[in-house]
Amino acid sequence: MSILARIKSFFGMEAKPDKNASQEEVEKVAEEKAKPRIGYIHLSGCTGDGMSLTENYDILAPLLTEMVDIVYGQTLVDLWEMPEMDIALVEGSCCLQDEHSLHELKEVREKAGLVVAFGSCAATGCFTRYSRGGQQAQPNHESFVPIADLVKVDLAIPGCPPSPEIIAKTVVAAINGDMDYLQPMMDLAGYTEACGCDLQSKVVNQALCIGCGTCAMACQTRALSMTNGRPELNENRCIKCGICYVQCPRSWWPAERINQDLGL
Question: Which of 164, 187, 210 is the last residue of a domain?
C-alpha cells in the first residue's frame, strides 16, 4: 500500500475518483503531484498546536518527509529568509506592540498561497486576546488579536490545541484538493470572536441543541457543564477558544462529511 493510501486509510479518507478513472490511477496522480511547501510560524501562544502535530506518531515521518516539504519554521528549518510557500501554518495571536510579529505576519501573507490560522489563538485570539498585561508569568503586553484582524486568512483549524487527527486530515485534504473537507475551515476563517455563550445564542436559542454533551466534553477548562440536558457556561473559566462551538454537531460540521468519516 502506498504512503498516501496508508495515511488516507488510517484516517478513513478516500480519494474521489473520476468516473472513468481507477483507484490506482487516482493515487498515482496524487503521488506524482509536487509536494506542497509548508511553513510554520509561531507568534504569541503556548506551542500546544505544534505539539499536537507531533502526536501523529504513526504517520508523522511520512507526513513530514514524504508528503510535504517543510521549508520554513523557527525550530524546523535552518533558514532566516522566508521563502515562497504553498501553505503557512500560523500558530498564536499577534501582539500589536510587537513590531517583529507584525512584520512577519504581513510577510507570510505575501509569501504563502494559503494562510492557515493554526489553533484557537491564531483564529480567535483565545485567552491571549483578553490578557491585560503584567500577569504572572507574562505577558507584559496586552494587545493580542487573531491574525484575521490583520491579514486575509484562508483556512482556520480550530482547537486549543487542534486534535492530531484534524491536522493530518487537513494536510491530506489540501494535497488531494478535497474542498468538501476544507470548506468548513474556509467558513471559519473569518470567525474571529468566540465564547461558550455562542452555544446559547447560536444553538440552544435556535432549538438546535440535542443535549449530547459534546461541547462540555470538548472544553479543556471545564467551563461548561450540562444542566437539565443543556450546556451551562461558567464565564470565569472560559478562555474564549471557541472549541465548544465548533465541536457541537449542530454548529458547522456537514452531516455528509461526518457520515463519510464514520463509514455510515
Answer: 187
- Domain boundary (187, 220, 239) is at 187
At residue 111 the predicted structure's pLDDT band, cuts being 50, 70 and 90, is: very high
Q: Does one domain contain both 28 and 123?
A: yes
List the CATH number of the domain containing 198. Answer: 3.30.70.20
Q: Cell numbers 495571536 label which residue?
A: 93
Q: Tell me the residue range of the domain where 231 lies.
A: 194-260
Neighbours of 172 (CB within 10 A): 22
Q: CB–CB of 149/191 below 8 Å?
A: no
b/e map 159-171, b = 16+ CB within 10 Å: bbbbbbebbbbbb
Q: Average pLDDT in the 86-111 region?
A: 91
pLDDT-wise least confident of 147-151, 153-157, 258-262:
258-262
Task: Compute the distance between CA of residue 226 and CA of residue 237 in angstroms, rounded to an integer.
Answer: 15
Nearest to 47 by CA among 6, 78, 76, 4: 76
CA dist., res. 232 & res. 225, Å (int): 5
Q: What is the mean pLDDT of the chain?
A: 79
Q: Which residue has the higher pLDDT, 163 or 107?
A: 107
